Amino acid sequence: MPGNRRHIPPEHKELVITMAATLSVRSIAHATGISERTVRRILQTWRETGEVCQRPYVDGRPRLLSMFNFLVLESLISRTPDIYLAELRDALLNIRGIDVCEQTIANALLRRRYSRKKVRLSFS
C-alpha cells in the first residue's frame, strides 16, 4: 500500500461511489487499493454533500464589510475625496448601521488599491 496522504482523483472517488451500490467497503478497498477508512470517508462525504470531493475551507474570518458596504464607502469617497477614516466610520454607522473600526476601513481600502492621502500643514 502506498504512503499516507496520497491524492485520489475525483474519477476514482466516483468509481468508489458506483461500486458501493453492489460491493462492501472491504471489497472496494481491496479492488481499488484505497484504504477502508478512505472508502468510508468518500462515501460519507458523498452522503452528506452529494459531492465526492470536499470543498476547500475559506481561510480567515468572514469580512465585516460586504461588497455593498464597500460600495457605500466608495460613493462617500467619490463625493468627498478628502474624507477621514473616522468620518467614513461614522457615515457607515449612520447609513448602514455597521460599526467597524477605522483600521477595518483602511484595510478594505488598501485591498481595493486606494492609497493614503498625505496631509501637510503649512505654518506661514
Short description:
This protein is 54% helix and 0% strand. The protein has helices at residues 10-19, 25-32, 36-49, 67-79, 85-96, 102-111. The radius of gyration is 27 Å and the shape is rod-shaped.
Q: Helical amount among residues, as a percent range? A: 40-55%
Kindly report how far apart the N and C termini lie.
Answer: 81 Å
> Helix segment count?
6
Radius of gyration computed on alpha carbons = 27 Å
Q: Report strand %.
A: under 5%
Order of helices and strands: HHHHHH
What is the overall shape? rod-shaped
> What is the residue-averaged pLDDT?
86
Poorly predicted runs are none
Give the biggest beta sheet: none
Helix-strand category: mainly alpha
Number of strands: 0
Describe this structure in words.
This protein has 124 residues and is mainly α. 54% of the residues lie in helices and 0% in strands. The protein has helices at 10-19, 25-32, 36-49, 67-79, 85-96, 102-111. Helix 2 (25-32) packs across helix 3, helix 4 (67-79) packs across helix 5 and helix 5 crosses helix 6 (102-111). The longest helix is centred in the middle third of the chain and has 14 residues, at 36-49. The protein is rod-shaped and about 85 Å long. The mean pLDDT is 86.
